[in-house]
Amino acid sequence: MATARRRDVRAHLPVAAVLVATLCYGSTFVIVQDALHRVTPMGFILLRFGIGALVLAPVALFVGWRAAPIPGPVTADRSGRGFVVAVLVMSVVLFAGYGFQNAGLQHTSSSNSAFITGLFVVFTPLVETVWYRRAPSPRVLCAVVLVAIGLFLLTGSQVSMGRGDALTLACAACFAIWTVQTAVHAPRFHPIAITAAQLGMLAVLSIPWVVVQGIGRVDGGVWAAAALTGVGCSALAFSLQTWAQRRIDPSRTAILLTLEPVTAGVVGWFVGERLGVRGYVGAAVILAGVVVVELGTRGAREWRSSRVEASAGATGAS
């Protein structure tokens, strides 16, 4: 019985890891917003991800890029070249997501931006279906619908599609692709190594933009925000999410990540911000979506089985 209990606890660790990552992502909105009044968005990205990369670099160099292999995607290249390609693809996609988000914020409201960015939860099952050639389960689709409705209510957005909204929609698509690509590459390489390399690449990619746009006024508050997000929201949270995605599917991960605005709302409540009735209803609907996707583990088992079959097919074809 003790062995079965330990096995059951281990089965829930990936979900717990994503939830901790979500808590990190959602708990820093207030300090980041304050920092962005004094520093440019790309300047903050440089500081945040640069600090995160420096924190993880010694550990990444110690553990190396290889990790114990688990049943993974069709592409099974675990070489140094495969590691570099994976990091480049993931970093460029994620950086494009942040770029589209920043550009969109210049032409749309923050509430619309928050809602449309959150729609990556809708795009993720579509990208996953194309990549794995397997449709998401009805449970996941139901949870996605609930979460999308909850996000709309929580953010107080308006139905529109201007230039800024279209740019932010591109951001959501990039985040969805990145979530699926994380699931693709996480089984192949060590989570800390691939996270550290991504953070470093994101910092490097931001340098040309900082040269053109400037970095702004970097004071103690900005350094504190960059250090907190660099260590907590980047080094720690990205590593936890990458490790978790070795074991749970991208759509389920995306649904769990939509608790980020709920977390932000809770933190905002403690500093005097209120969501209003509509916002609290939206948060409740998001929680309902998370409960729906977490009811039972059959979908997760089926997803792992499809990865095993894909890997077996690739081995047989080679």
Compile the SSE list and pairings:
Elements: H1 2-26, H2 29-35, H3 41-63, H4 80-105, H5 110-118, H6 120-132, H7 138-155, H8 163-185, H9 191-213, H10 220-244, H11 250-257, H12 259-270, H13 276-294, H14 298-317
Helix pairs in contact: 1-10, 1-12, 2-10, 3-9, 3-10, 4-8, 4-9, 5-7, 5-8, 6-8, 6-11, 7-13, 8-11, 9-10
Describe this protein's structure.
By secondary structure, the protein is mainly α. It has one domain (16-317). The chain has helices at 2-26, 29-35, 41-63, 80-105, 110-118, 120-132, 138-155, 163-185, 191-213, 220-244, 250-257, 259-270, 276-294, 298-317. The chain starts with a helix and ends with a helix. 51% of the residues are buried.
pLDDT < 50 runs, ≥5 residues: 297-303, 305-318
Q: Give the structural class.
A: mainly alpha
Helix content: over 70%
**Helix count, DSSP H or I runs of 4 or more residues:** 14
* H/E element order: HHHHHHHHHHHHHH
| pLDDT averaged residue by residue | 78
Q: Could you tell me the strand content as a percent range?
A: under 5%
Total tally of structural domains: 1
Largest sheet: none
Q: What general form does the structure show? A: globular
Radius of gyration: 19 Å
SS elements, strand count: 0
In terms of quaternary structure, what is this?
single chain
> Separation of termini?
42 Å
